[in-house]
Design brief:
Elements (H helix, E strand, L loop, with lengths): L12 H15 L11 H8 L3 H13 L3 E3 L5 E3 L5 H19 L4 H16 L2
Antiparallel strand pairs: 1-2
Helix pairs in contact: 1-3, 2-3
């Protein structure tokens, strides 16, 4: 798994790291058990402060994307991405609410697609 920073990006470096590791874990590019570089090693490779990388790792661990195993290092977690589970719960809640309000499925789907388009810009 290669982590590359875009120095011209307005996204902070720790968030670029977090997003790339989370995406690699979700896509399977970094399967469960994949060992991440140590905080010090990755900071050195990317030319960042150790605390910047440590912040990204802490956020990944809090989200359940990675787990730290002491001297064994940090690895992609088997528990899956908690953020994905949270979004799935929100989607299910939206679907139940839309149905309860009598919205046809096509309208509910259109609302979601519009919100995604506005958020992701695609």
């Amino acid at each position: 798994m290669l982590i590359a920073l875009d120095p011209a990006s307005p996204v902070p470096p720790f968030e670029q790291i977090r997003a790339q590791v989370a995406a690699a874990a979700a896509s399977g590019e970094a399967p469960v058990g994949t060992k991440l570089p140590t905080v010090r090693k990755l900071a050195e490779e990317l030319g960042l402060a150790v605390n910047t990388v440590a912040k990204a790792y802490r956020e990944l661990e809090a989200a359940g994307v990675v787990e730290t195993r002491g001297r064994a290092g940090t690895v992609v977690a088997a528990s899956g991405d908690r953020s994905l589970a949270e979004v799935a719960r929100a989607a299910a809640s939206f679907a139940l609410r839309a149905k309860a309000l009598g919205l046809p499925e096509t309208q509910a789907r259109a609302l979601v697609e519009t919100a995604l388009h506005e958020t992701y810009g695609g």
